[in-house]
Design goal:
By secondary structure, this protein is an alpha/beta fold. About 40% of the residues lie in helices and about 10% in strands.
């Protein structure tokens, strides 16, 4: 085995998505049309598990997004159904829910390790004061918050989750287990470099390495605290095996690879 190789089964994808089969059959064509993009998978759990096998991924965080307050119960129920030693569901809370703190408590009481939020699909700015009770509840329950940051491929480039706004949240809640997505700010990497890269802020680099100069991505990841980088793919949008190969191709060194592919995620998920 090469010195910088990661053992098979020692990879956690911290950023994946799936739907109930019937939902996937309707939702995926709609989402592909909105993004003008063909997904690597069909959005079903079985397809995700097969993809993980091909890629040598041990576990995937399956992140849901509540686009309406009334979806919480169904998402929590489905998350319970799919939870396993391979799939780690992160349910979601809509900002307009009338009992945000109660919803966060229910997620923690059900044994889940985190929650997923997406400012474009859920219509909020990440630094809005109305989100403060939610952040306090997530922090209080010790949950991880996986937050979409940067722009979104299916929406106009409104600055609802840009690095300046994210930095305000980090400043207000320094002990919140916040994981930013897409190299901290998808397609807004000049601002990410100014405000987030190199800081003690967790970030994945899902659906990003094919969109940014590899040398710049490598420099950003080497400059970032090694304990604050987690591997993610944004599956079904990115092929997991391709994402693993692209991450290895950055040649970050064996120590950083172990942290990035497994150790940091395992710590956040309470596996170690």
């Amino acid at each position: 085995m090469a010195m910088n190789a990661v053992e098979p089964g020692r990879i956690i994808d911290f950023h994946a998505h799936a739907f109930p089969d019937a939902v996937a059959e309707k939702a995926m064509p709609k989402l592909e049309g909105e993004a003008n993009l063909k997904a690597a998978l069909d959005g079903k759990v079985g397809s995700l598990l097969a993809s993980m096998d091909r890629a040598g991924i041990a576990q995937s965080v399956v992140a849901s997004i509540a686009t309406k307050p009334g979806q919480f119960d169904a998402i929590l129920r489905w998350s319970r159904e799919i939870a396993s030693d391979r799939l780690v569901p992160f349910p979601s809370v809509h900002p307009e829910d009338t009992d945000v703190a109660g919803r966060v408590r229910a997620i923690a009481d059900a044994g889940f390790r985190g929650v997923k939020m997406h400012p474009y699909y859920q219509d909020f700015k990440v630094d809005e004061a109305r989100l403060w009770p939610f952040y306090r509840a997530v922090r209080g329950e010790g949950l991880v918050l996986l937050l979409h940051t940067g722009f979104d491929i299916a929406y106009p480039h409104d600055r609802v989750a840009d690095p300046v706004r994210v930095a305000r949240v980090v400043e207000a809640f320094p002990d919140l287990k916040l994981v930013t997505s897409h190299l901290a700010a998808w397609l807004d990497w000049d601002e990410a470099e100014k405000h987030l890269w190199g800081k003690p802020v967790y970030m994945d680099f899902s659906y990003s390495l094919h969109m940014i100069d590899p040398g710049r991505a490598r420099a950003a990841l080497l400059a970032h605290p090694a304990e604050y980088v987690v591997f993610g793919t944004d599956s079904p949008w990115e092929d997991q095996a391709h994402a693993v190969a692209a991450a290895r191709g950055l040649d970050l060194g064996s120590g950083r690879e172990r942290l990035m592919f497994y150790d940091n995620a395992a710590r956040l998920l309470g596996l170690t």
